[in-house]
C-alpha cells in the first residue's frame, strides 16, 4: 500500500490472519482469495476486509524482476550514508 505493508495499514486483519508471511501474489493466485482468518470477520474487521479487497482486486501481477526503491536517497538507491543519516 504505497510505502507501507498491509500489516501496518490493516493491523487488526493481520493479527487474526492464519498465515502472517503470505504474499499478495499467493493470496491473489486463486478465486476466492487464498487467505484465512482465525476468527470470523464481523463489524470493523469485515469493513476493513472489503476495503482491502477493493484495493487489491484490480492488481495485475506480472512475471518479472522486482525493483527496490530506497526512499531515503534522492536517486532511490541504497547507500550506507543515507541509512546513517536516517538513523541519527
Q: What do these coordinates show?
A:
It is a single chain. The chain has a domain at 6-62. The longest helix has 14 residues, at 43-56. It is built from five helices and no strands. With 88 residues, it is mainly α. It is extended and about 45 Å long.
Structure class: mainly alpha
Strand percent estimate = under 5%
Distance between the termini: 27 Å
Summarize the main sheet: none
Mean pLDDT, all residues: 84
The poorly predicted ranges are none
Q: Supply the number of helical segments.
A: 5
What's the alpha carbon Rg, rounded to whole Å?
16 Å
Shape: extended
Order of helices and strands: HHHHH
Query: How many beta-strand runs?
Result: 0
Query: What is the percent of helical residues?
Result: 40-55%
